[in-house]
Amino acid sequence: MCKTAGVSTDDASPLNLGLLLFIPYRAMETAVLDALAEAGHDLPLNQARVFQRIAPEGSRLAQLAQASQLPKQTVGSIVDHLERSGYVRRIPDPTDARARLVTITPRGQELVEISLPVVRATEAAWRAHLGEQRTVLLRDALADLREITDPFRP
Amino acid sequence: MCKTAGVSTDDASPLNLGLLLFIPYRAMETAVLDALAEAGHDLPLNQARVFQRIAPEGSRLAQLAQASQLPKQTVGSIVDHLERSGYVRRIPDPTDARARLVTITPRGQELVEISLPVVRATEAAWRAHLGEQRTVLLRDALADLREITDPFRP
DNA sequence: GCACATAGTCCGAAGTTCGGACTAATGTGA
DNA sequence: TCACATTAGTCCGAACTTCGGACTATGTGC
């Protein structure tokens, strides 16, 4: 299966940029999830994806919903699980009594601390493969692309 | 939410490469799905992701399962839906009587034909934003990265 | 030809998603 | 200052999805 049917750019060319982006993304995600599982944290994908979006100072549910492009209820239920597993806590938002901030607990912080070296190692492996200069170019291009593709830039 | 908690490369730096890859990927996916919905094809994400992996000459279930990193049963059920909606058909694999090939029907081909210009337009928008040269570098870097990150290269 | 691997399906329990309807707190403007 | 619209989040529950286990049919190697 070299060419995809659905979204290949054209018959003769290789994969479209979308899938080309997805492949390494998925690899990074898998590496992190595997490392977490190894450390005894069995985080399902949906929980990981929401967790990842929590800002260090805490995030509101609606923010998380927007960032992960899921309805509030869905994110609510995912946060319930994260909370039950002790990774996050909901605290009242001091600036708005309707809202609550989803914050990372010390146990949740463990997840971050396990992930970080894996992310760094994966990036290092990529850098070793691509070379320093191209890695910088890649990151720059992606950061630039974010300007026109991120529906949720604060 | 500027920095993500889970996987930021380091406190001062911007997003990690993983999320940086994901953002444009998701944008592309959304653009395609929106266009399909507009044309009356309400394809859920999971179906779209599997459909996208079907090779023009047809793919086996096990291949699709491996490529999308889902169990056979899950992919089987997704293919059931695609089949019920008339986008794909299962035909016997002439080379192996146990296997069947999931192939794209004319109606499924419509999906491809709707997606293609959207993919091209999105890529063109990105090119306009990044410039010709950086786009080429981006694609090259990603294609290279695929060599070490694609668990399923034929 | 017999054992073993492989393709795919069926079953069903457990889990996930998310529309709609709701409560509570905020902001707004007359 | 009070109605009124808006926004944060939750509760409910039906429909759907996921996927382990067990199964059949075919291929493959000894």
> Biggest protein-protein interface?
A-B, 70 and 70 residues
Mean pLDDT of chain A: 89
What is the number of independent domains of chain A?
1
Q: What coarse outline of chain A follows from CA principal-axis ratios?
A: globular
Described by its quaternary structure, the protein is homodimer
**How do the SSEs of chain A run, as a string of H and E?**
HHEHHEEHH
Q: pLDDT under 50 segments of chain A (min length 5)?
A: 1-12
Going across the biggest sheet of chain A, name each strand in turn.
Answer: 1-3-2
The CATH homologous superfamily name of chain A equals: Winged helix-like DNA-binding domain superfamily/Winged helix DNA-binding domain
Structural class of chain A: mainly alpha
Number of helices of chain A: 6
Question: How much helical structure, as a percent, in the residues of chain A?
Answer: 55-70%
Share of residues in strands of chain A: 5-15%
